[in-house]
Specification:
The structure is a homodimer. By secondary structure, the first copy, chain A, is of the alpha/beta class. The first copy, chain A, has two domains: 239 residues, Aspartate Aminotransferase, domain 2, CATH 3.40.640.10; 100 residues, Aspartate Aminotransferase, domain 1, CATH 3.90.1150. Chain A has nine helices and 14 strands. In chain A, the strands form four sheets. In chain A, strands 2-10-9-8-5-3-4 form a seven-stranded mixed β-sheet, sandwiched between helices. In chain A, strands 11-12-14 form a three-stranded antiparallel β-sheet, covered by helices on one side. The first copy, chain A, has a two-stranded parallel ribbon with strand order 1-13. In chain A, strand 6 and strand 7 form a beta hairpin. The first copy, chain A, is globular and about 65 Å long. The relative contact order of chain A is 0.17. The interface between A and B is large, with 61 and 61 residues. Chains A, B: Homodimer. Chains A, B: One of its GO terms (cellular component) is cytoplasm. Chains A, B: Catalyzes the reversible conversion of 3-phosphohydroxypyruvate to phosphoserine and of 3-hydroxy-2-oxo-4-phosphonooxybutanoate to phosphohydroxythreonine. Chains A, B: GO terms for molecular function: O-phospho-L-serine:2-oxoglutarate aminotransferase activity; pyridoxal phosphate binding. Chains A, B: Pathway: Cofactor biosynthesis; pyridoxine 5'-phosphate biosynthesis; pyridoxine 5'-phosphate from D-erythrose 4-phosphate: step 3/5; Amino-acid biosynthesis; L-serine biosynthesis; L-serine from 3-phospho-D-glycerate: step 2/3.
Chain lengths: 356, 356
């Protein structure tokens, strides 16, 4: 019996993607060779890379002038590549601090210049998204994190700025309709809605690059990777291929508009139960609740053992909350079927019945 | 029919590894979850990472005081991480230039300090390993590339130096017995003898770190990765797991001593034919010939069409030489069975028979 997988990341992927990618590890494209033992310079793999990049452009409705890259190093390396590529020597940038990942991004950027943290929700363990902050003028870029897995918050309205807008979209890219023309740089680790751990998606507006005056190391330079079509060095072949399959799955399903509806339905089902059932309380501020990561706690900690047994018995896995928040976190990414959310809601209702 | 896969990298992996890793993509360790959809913080994946690291230590007979890391970014990112971690501010380093990969390593290191290229075989398209060069005193480290895939050369005797010794061992690690106490830092992209593209092995002597006076970005800092047991950020789960399986395969086979014998036998078979058959000539200097990549050319370029048809018909793939050398390159890494080398030798003998 397949588990109901609520893991925060690496996380659930479509079953058909897992099946196809396992087949390719044995025999890829009827080549009588494994996907992972062919040259990345082969026509077959170049096709995979090009298809993956063009699916990203199509699904996100990217306008002309943006490049799509599949790199390595995760969002964590992008925390460094962002200032290397966008922060002028003696330049400044503004960061919105919405949690642990923003904090890490700020730390790395500070190595290269003056970073202004213009808003933070640290005062309430990041359970809300800051609003009504002022972005200083004369900055090179504004950086934000669209979705905060640990706390279950999500930005609904992105900062308005004349500076460049950068977004770490690791945990909610491909989950909802967004106007990408508002962003100049978007990056995302694959291991939530796109694929397995091991590759990082970068979407960057070409015209913003090459303007910092910095001598950028090759592997950290977006222009180097663009000029080599994401093949400056050997790409993570398996992760790129599996991402391509997941993007194809999403396209066949009806694209972002279709998945957004499914995601809203799943989230509503779960949040409604949290709000209705007096044994649970939501962690994040209602207006900032994430469609991807639903964080909640027991009203009475003494019920923990009972509830944990209920969801374990129901075949649910990955529900434990992050240590900094406690309680529970149900990550309901694109590939999560509504049936699994229904199973979780049932166990919450069972708890109510058992303890009255 | 499985192909005879002579690809230079990503390259052949053991068949049983491909089978097991494909199974894990469907259902890992009877968890009823895929390997690529579980948390890297799960006990099951932490076991994989620890097992992979301890297999490296065991197979290479590493002494106490060395750390083993599985990172991302390939050798290309190590070209930058090496000087970041070892080159003092205003320090100097010496590099041996044995080809395209050394050249790239030199380029990145130059961003951080004074780099002396103390020897180069560029004068003869890198078809030999330089010897009898002088390493200056008062340098922080010496950097060399143990095996040069493009040209088919391999270092047999490593530089003797009082400075730190760094080696890019991407294309021949785990292929021959070496005394690792002579090295202070070794790195290797996985995609030859260790696993699929997507992870990089780093072996570093702990006591050499933290001495440059540099403020190193987190993702480029070996000490950060060591302190987090290679889990500072989400590791490339699939690539690490497949590497672990390949290392287990190697251990079960008898370890490095056993594979070295097999590798010598395969290489001898092929080099003997190149030297015997007047229709072929080897590219690399005899004393520097690689056990991993056998480079050769036709004596008469007019035979190309005939020979290409012969090996294609025999089910051989990946034999084309690198564009900078031309001709042929037979990469005969650890997982290549001797039967495939025999098939290649037979096609060479067939050419001889056909054209006399």
């Amino acid at each position: 019996m397949k588990k109901h997988n609520f893991s925060a990341g690496p996380s659930i992927l479509p079953q058909e993607v897992l099946k196809k990618t396992a087949e390719a590890v044995i025999n890829f494209n009827h080549l009588n060779l494994s996907l992972i033992e062919i040259s990345h310079r082969s026509k077959e793999f170049i096709d995979v890379m090009e298809n993956a990049r063009s699916l990203v452009k199509e699904l996100l409705n990217l306008p002309e002038g943006y490049s799509v890259l599949f790199l390595q190093g995760g969002a964590s390396l992008e925390f460094l590549m962002t200032p290397y590529n966008l922060l002028k020597i003696n330049g400044k940038a503004a960061y919105i601090d919405t949690g642990a990942w923003s904090t890490k991004a700020i730390k790395e950027a500070k190595l290269l210049g003056e970073i202004n943290v213009v808003a933070s929700s640290k005062d309430k363990t990041y359970n809300y998204i800051p609003k009504n902050y002022t972005i200083p003028t004369a900055i090179d870029y504004v950086h934000c994190t669209s979705n905060n897995t640990i706390y279950g918050t999500q930005i609904k309205e992105f900062p308005k700025t004349d500076a460049l807008l950068v977004c770490d979209m690791s945990s909610d890219i491909f989950s909802r309709k967004l106007d990408f023309t508002q962003f100049d740089l978007v990056y995302a680790g694959a291991q939530k809605n796109m694929g397995p751990a091991g590759t990082t998606l970068v979407i960057v507006k070409d015209e913003i690059l090459g303007k910092t005056g910095r001598n950028i190391p090759s592997m950290l330079d977006f222009q180097v990777h663009i000029s080599k079509d994401s093949m400056f060095n050997t790409p993570p072949v398996f992760a790129v291929y599996t991402s391509m399959l997941t993007l194809e799955w999403l396209k066949n399903l009806g694209g972002i508009a279709a998945i957004e509806k499914r995601n809203e339905k799943k989230a509503t089902l779960l949040y409604d139960e949290i709000d209705r059932n007096s044994h649970f309380k939501g962690f994040a501020a209602k207006e900032d609740r994430s469609l991807m990561n639903v964080t909640f706690n027991l009203t009475n900690e003494a019920d923990k053992e009972t509830f944990d047994k209920l969801w374990n018995d129901a075949g649910i896995s990955g529900l434990k909350g992050h240590r900094s928040v406690g309680g529970y976190r149900a990550s309901i990414y694109n590939a999560m079927p509504i049936e699994s959310v229904q199973v979780l809601v049932s166990t919450m209702q069972q708890l109510e019945k058992q303890i009255g």
